[in-house]
Amino acid sequence: MRTLVTGGAGFVPSHLCERLIAEGHEVVALDNFVTGDERNLRELRREPRFTFIEADVTKALPVTGRFDRVYHMASPASPIDYVELPFETLFAGSDATRLGLERAHQDGARFFLASTSEVYGDPAVHPQVESYWGNVNPIGPRSVYDEAKRYAEALTMAFHRYKKVPTRIVRIFNTYGPRMRVNDGRVIPAFCSQALRGEPLTVFGDGSQTRSFCYVSDLVDGLFRLMESELAEPCNIGNPTERSMLELADYINRFTNNPAGVVHKPLPQDDPTRRRPDISRARAVLGWEPQVSFEDGLRRTVDYFAEVMRERGELA
Ligand code: UDP
User: Fold this and answer.
1) Ligand 1 atom at minimal distance to the Cα of residue 209
2) Strand partners, 185
3) How far apart are the CA of 187 and the centre of ligand 1, in A?
4) Residue with the nearest Cα to atom 4 of ligand 1?
C-alpha cells in the first residue's frame, strides 16, 4: 500500500504516519512547516518506508508514482492560526483539497478528508450527529476554517458522486496529546504549559462552554478504520466525555499541583458554547470507540510539554 499524507509534520498527521508505517504502508508525507514541526518527524525519519518532501500542498503535490491512499490532513487548526494564517487556512481547505482529489482520481486511489466538528459551528443540536447541518457564521473570524472545511466536504462529495472517487470524510472533534505546539493557543497546550510554569490558567469567558477531548492515538485509530471502511458519508470521531473549560482548568491544576488558580479573559468571538460528538455511527460502522482515559492521556501530554519546555530552557 502506497500512501500520501498531506500535512505530515503536523500533530495528528505525524501520529497517523507512524500508524500507517506500523500497518506496513509506504508513506510519502508533504508539509511546508507553516504550523508543522520537524521535531514531529524524528522517529519517522528513521523509517526506510517513510519519505518526506517539503512542499506547499495548496500549490502542487510534487510527488511521483501511483498512490493507493491519499489522506488530506494539511491545515492550520487552531483558532489563533485562523487569524494569523487566514489565506493559508482557506487554501488548505479549498485548493489543496482539490489537488488531493484530482490526484486520487488520476491514481484510482481512495481519498480521505480531515474535516472537523467546526462544520457544526455553534451547534443548536446537542450532541452533534452527522445529519445536523450546523450553525456557522460565514463571515466571522473562524469562517476561514469552518467554511473552507464545509467547501472541502462539498468538493469531496462531488468527486464521490460525479467522478466515482472512493472518498471518506472524518469530522474530527477536539483532540489532544504529545506533539501539539506548546504555543498554539488551544486550551490543552495553554492550560498545561501555564500549569507547568506555575501560572494561573487563562479561562476564556465564564468557562461554562464545553468541549470533549479525544486522545490522539484513539483518534488515529478511528481515522485508519474509517479509511479502510466502505463509509462515504461523514463520520464523527471524538471522545463523547464532555466537560466545561472551568472544570478542565480545575482538573489540570489538581493534576499538576498548581496552586495558582485561574484568571478569566474575554471570550473570543463566535466561540462555540458546547461541543460533544454523537459517535453512534463510528461505533456501529467502524466498531470504534475511545480507549484511553483522560487521566492517562493527560499524563502523557503533560510529560511531553514538560520535555519540550525543558529543551527550550523554559523549565528547570
Ligand atoms: N480556551 C480557554 N483558555 C485558553 C484557550 C482556550 O478558556 O487559553 C477555551 C476557548 O474559548 C474554547 C475552548 O477553550 O471555548 C477550546 O478552545 P480551543 O482553542 O482549544 O479549541 P476550539 O474547540 O475552540 O477550536
Assistant:
1) 15
2) none
3) 5
4) 187
**DSSP one-letter string for 191-219:** HHHHHHHTPPEEEETTS--EEE-EEHHHH
Counting ligand 1 atoms within 8 A of each CB, the residue from 182, 208, 211 with the most, and so the one to mutate, is 211
Residue of 187, 263, 264 to mutate, ligand 1, most atoms within 8 A of C-beta: 187
Q: Are residues 98 and 225 in the same domain?
A: yes
Region 155-166 average pLDDT: 98
Q: Which residue has the cell 481519498?
A: 111
Same-domain check for residues 145 and 199: no
On whether the pTM is more than 0.85, the answer is yes
Catalytic residues: 145
38: domain range? Answer: 2-173+216-237
Residue 184 has which C-alpha cell?
Answer: 498554539
> Is 120 domain-assigned?
yes
Q: Which residue has the cell 456501529?
A: 284
Instruction: Read off the CATH number of the domain in which 58 is found.
Output: 3.40.50.720
Q: How confident is the model at residue 316 (pLDDT cuts 50, 70, 90)?
A: confident
Give nearest CA residue, ligand 1 atom 21.
Answer: 186
Same domain, 157 and 11: yes
